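From the thread on structure requests for the teaching lab: each student submitted one protein with a one-line request. Submission from student K.M.:

"Model PITH domain-containing protein from Achaetomium macrosporum, C-alpha cells only."
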Amino acid sequence: MSKTINISSPTQLSEVLQSSRLVVANFYTESSQASQQVAPVFEQLSAALSRPDLVTFVKVDTNQQKDVVQAYRITSQPTFIIFRNGKVAERVQGADPTKLQAVVKKLSDEIQNLGTSGGEASGSGSGSNGGYWRGAELPRNYSDITDQIELHRCELLNYDPDAGNVRVLFDAAKPSALSGGKGATKDWVESDTDEQLLLFMPFQSMLKLHTLQITSLPPSGDDNEDEDVPSRPRTIKLFTNKPHNLGFEEAEDLSATQEIQLSEKDWNAEGTANIPLRFVKFQNITSLVVFVVDGDGEGEKTRLDRLRLVGDAGEKREMGKLEKIGDEPGE
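Reply posted by the TA:
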C-alpha cells in the first residue's frame, strides 16, 4: 500500500511540514506524460523510505493546488522538493529518475541521521559503514547540515599524514577511540609541526550556521604525559565567506567572525564540544575556515576526531550539481 499523502489544501501541507522532519514533495499534473513516467519511481521510494514523523512523501496536483504552486514557484511538472524542518533543502525539476535517485541517495543517509537522533535504532558501529553516530544532541528546530560541505574542495593545513586526512572529520561513523579499537586506519586528524590546524570548508548551498560540534578524543591518563600525545583544541577562530583557505600568519592577524575559548567543562562524555555561534554573524554563509590556534595540553599537537555543522541549508547555488549529489568525490 502506498504511504504517499495526497495534499488537498495548503493547510494540510503546512501541517505535514510541521510534523515531519523531512518531507519529499512531488508536484505533478495528471495530464503530464513526464509526471506519469517518474511516478512509479517516486512511489517505490515512498514505500521504502517513509517513516512516521521523520520522513514523509507527499503528492501535490498542480492543477488543484494553485496557492501551493505559487508559494513554491513551481514552473514545470514534475518538480520534486525536499523539505528539511519545513524549509526547502533541495529541488529537482523534470522526469529524470537519475536526478531523483541521486537526491534520494543523499536523503537515505539523512534518514539514518534522523533515526539515531529521533530515538530509532540505526546502528553505531566503529567502521565507515557502521551507521550514523552523533556526539551531541541537535539544538531544537535545527538540523545537521554537514552534508552541505563540498568535500572535494576542503583543504586542511598542517596535518600529520600518518593520521587521517580531512575526510575523516566528516565521517558518520562512531570514532574508533570510543569503541576501544585502534583499527588499521586512524580515523582522526592530528596537527603536524605544532598545535595549529587550518581547515577550509566551502558549501554547496547558502547556510545559516547555529552550532559547531567538535569531537576530540586524545589519549587520557598516563599516556598524556608524553609530549608527542596530542591535546584537545583550546582556542579556535572562525572566519566566514572566504574564497579559499587562509595562511597561518593571516589567520593570526585577521579579526575573526567569532573566537572561541574551550575549557574542560565544554567537552561531554563522548568527547564532543557543542559550540553555539553568534547566529546573527553566521547568516548566508558560503564557506567556513576553522583555525585551531592552540591546544589545552602540554604536547605540541592537537587532535580532531569529528566535526559537525548545525543550522539551516538554503537552496543549491548551482542546480546543475544535483546530478552529482551522493557521488563519492575523488581523492
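TA comment: The first strand starts at residue 5 and ends at 6. The two ends are 42 Å apart (CA to CA).
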